[in-house]
């Protein structure tokens, strides 16, 4: 219906309602007389009719979409009708010198009832009887609190979303068997699978913003027993700020199932270290380095230097930060290789950073087994170059991004990270710069993570390849890892190795199973194939060795390891004789050195 036709129809309908209301009220009060044929009735009818259309236009009663009518529209009707009646009473007093209060009161009640009924009946009819063209999916909402109620109301109001809520699941015993917005609270989370089957549910929507990670993991486990698609409602803060609609759901991510709450940071101490300062990040184009840059910029440094070897990756993070922060922060992209000692010294001498976050490294375990010289050249000698430049030019704090693979390493990559820790510990003994290292486990979404590989295998139809059914790893998200690096820098006194309490390790095969389910497939459809442990891999990783553990946290969920600096002479021997050593000798040497075992090569040389 066009707007003009709609306006005409509503105007005629309202005119009939106004006339009916006034004549019914007069006949109710004077059933035996002919008062409705008098000039009183004529004056009242004309006045009420004109004033109604005037106030109806003021409160836009002819412009509202009544199929979505709610309390706000009802209030507008009451205001328009009340002002119309008041206007009529004033005209009666002025012209007739008398106000027919009882007649006007009855007319007011009839007026509100008939106008409101005519409008809201269309919404009721539409919601109950008109079938929308969109095929609606039946949805079960997990959580009958404020967020779940908001979600249900939005979905009930907006049939175009294509989702029809049919009930709630909530673990609160006080809500069981109640109805919210006409929808039943069916039971607790143990009834998810049965409810999905009984009510033919297509989608499960988790709507509990305060849900802990362990609870999320448990509830997702119940949901994964069904064939329904599991989704998560967006954050309430984003909905309230208008960033997203309440019905813009997202898929459950692997990060939601880590089973560990994020570490709360000491914002004041980080801000004190970063705000207004000059910060240099090596490996700034990498997954961790780029996220460190993003986190640093939140604290408004005066200048940030993005140093990396890859031209394209540095270009991307440079453009991203400049688009986000405009001219608030001076952002300087530097193309440099940490193996180029003269270039690194030139950069640090020129910009004299207050803090260096050293994230540049080779991290791929099997690849470094085949290229031990490159691993040492980059992870050990490159770190030495940056660290000694920091020492030479008086950098305040140097933070090395290390790895849990540095503990009792069986591979070249882990060994080089441990030796890099030794290098900075050795420098810390006589330097004014505070040198510290940060160890954490696997980072979800990084370039070396198993997640991108698993996703690619799932998209290709499988199977997903896992090295061993008992292989376990610690996991954390990239933002969390990067925030830990910043926190470590603010806690640094010099020489420490900071470690995050990463909760329980995760079986890689369980991670693969969850990712398959999150992608909408069953384990049987995709399949999991065990390929065998790759060169240099361990069945499980440790964050601290037996001799390194401090029982007390220096910060909530952050520990300091007592990594002992030993075999300084052997570290120096590796650096001095690196060019003369074969790849095989280097591989044997660094693994023995990192594990504090006696090196035959070093003994023979001495």
Automatic annotation (TrEMBL):
TM ranges: 7-29, 41-62, 74-94, 100-118, 139-156
All copies of domain Polysaccharide biosynthesis protein CapD-like, residue ranges: 279-561
Domain of life: Bacteria
CDD domains: UDP_invert_4-6DH_SDR_e
InterPro entries (UniProt xref): NAD(P)-bd_dom_sf, Polysac_CapD-like, Polysaccharide_Synthase-Rel
Keywords: Membrane, Transmembrane, Transmembrane helix
Family indicated by similarity: Belongs to the polysaccharide synthase family.
Name of the featured protein: Polysaccharide biosynthesis protein
Species assigned in the record: Cytobacillus depressus
Lineage: Bacteria, Bacillati, Bacillota, Bacilli, Bacillales
């Amino acid at each position: 219906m066009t707007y003009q036709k709609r306006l005409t129809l509503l105007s005629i309908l309202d005119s009939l309602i106004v006339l009916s209301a006034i004549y019914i009220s007069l006949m109710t009060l004077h059933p035996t007389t002919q008062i409705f044929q008098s000039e009183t009735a004529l004056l009242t009818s004309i006045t009420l009719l004109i004033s109604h259309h005037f106030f109806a236009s003021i409160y836009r009663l002819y412009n509202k979409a009544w199929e979505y009518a709610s309390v706000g529209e009802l209030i507008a009707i009451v205001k328009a009708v009340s002002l119309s009646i008041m206007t009529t009473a004033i005209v009666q007093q002025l012209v007739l010198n008398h106000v027919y209060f009882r007649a006007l009161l009855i007319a007011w009640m009839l007026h509100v009832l008939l106008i409101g009924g005519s409008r809201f009946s269309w919404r009721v009819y539409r919601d109950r009887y008109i079938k929308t063209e969109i095929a609606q999916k039946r949805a079960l909402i997990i959580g009958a609190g404020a967020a779940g109620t908001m979600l249900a109301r939005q979905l009930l109001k907006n049939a175009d979303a294509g989702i029809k809520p049919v009930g709630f699941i909530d673990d609160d015993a006080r809500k069981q068997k109640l109805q919210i917005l006409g929808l039943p609270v069916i039971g607790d989370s143990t009834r998810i699978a049965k409810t999905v089957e009984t009510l033919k549910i297509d989608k499960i929507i988790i709507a509990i913003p305060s849900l802990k990670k362990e609870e999320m993991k448990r509830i997702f486990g119940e949901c994964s027993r069904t064939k329904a698609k599991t989704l998560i409602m967006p954050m309430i803060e984003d909905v309230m700020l208008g960033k997203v609609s309440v019905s813009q759901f997202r898929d459950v991510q692997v990060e939601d199932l880590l089973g560990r709450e994020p570490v709360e940071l000491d914002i004041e101490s980080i801000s004190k270290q970063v705000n207004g300062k000059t910060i240099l990040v090596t490996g700034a184009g990498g997954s961790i380095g780029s996220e460190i840059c993003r986190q640093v910029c939140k604290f408004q440094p005066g200048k940030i230097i993005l140093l990396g070897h890859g031209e394209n990756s540095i270009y991307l993070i440079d453009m991203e930060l400049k688009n986000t922060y405009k001219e608030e922060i001076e952002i300087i992209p530097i193309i440099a290789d940490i193996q180029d000692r003269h270039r690194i010294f030139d950069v640090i001498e020129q910009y004299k950073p207050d803090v260096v976050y050293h994230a540049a490294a080779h991290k791929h375990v099997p690849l470094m087994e085949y290229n031990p010289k490159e691993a040492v050249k980059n992870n050990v000698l490159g770190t030495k170059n940056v660290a000694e430049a920091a020492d030479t030019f008086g950098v305040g704090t140097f933070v090395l991004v290390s790895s849990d693979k540095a503990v009792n390493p069986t591979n070249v990559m882990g060994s080089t990270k441990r030796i890099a820790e030794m290098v900075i510990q050795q420098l810390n003994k006589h330097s004014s710069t505070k040198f510290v290292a940060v160890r954490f486990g696997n980072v979800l979404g990084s370039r070396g993570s198993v997640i991108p590989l698993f996703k690619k295998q799932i998209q290709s139809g499988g199977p997903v390849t896992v090295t061993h059914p008992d292989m376990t790893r610690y996991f954390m998200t990239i933002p969390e890892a990067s925030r830990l690096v910043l926190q470590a820098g603010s806690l640094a006194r010099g020489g420490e190795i900071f470690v995050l309490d990463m909760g329980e390790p995760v079986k890689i095969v369980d991670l693969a199973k969850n990712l398959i389910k999150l992608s909408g497939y069953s384990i049987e459809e995709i399949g999991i194939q065990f390929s065998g442990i790759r060169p240099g891999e361990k069945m499980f990783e440790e964050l601290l060795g037996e001799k390194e553990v401090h029982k007390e946290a220096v910060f909530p969920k952050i520990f300091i390891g007592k990594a002992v600096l030993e075999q300084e002479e052997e570290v120096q021997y590796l650096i001095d004789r690196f060019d003369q050593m074969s790849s095989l000798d280097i591989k044997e040497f660094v693994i023995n050195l990192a594990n504090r075992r006696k090196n035959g090569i070093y003994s023979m040389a001495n």
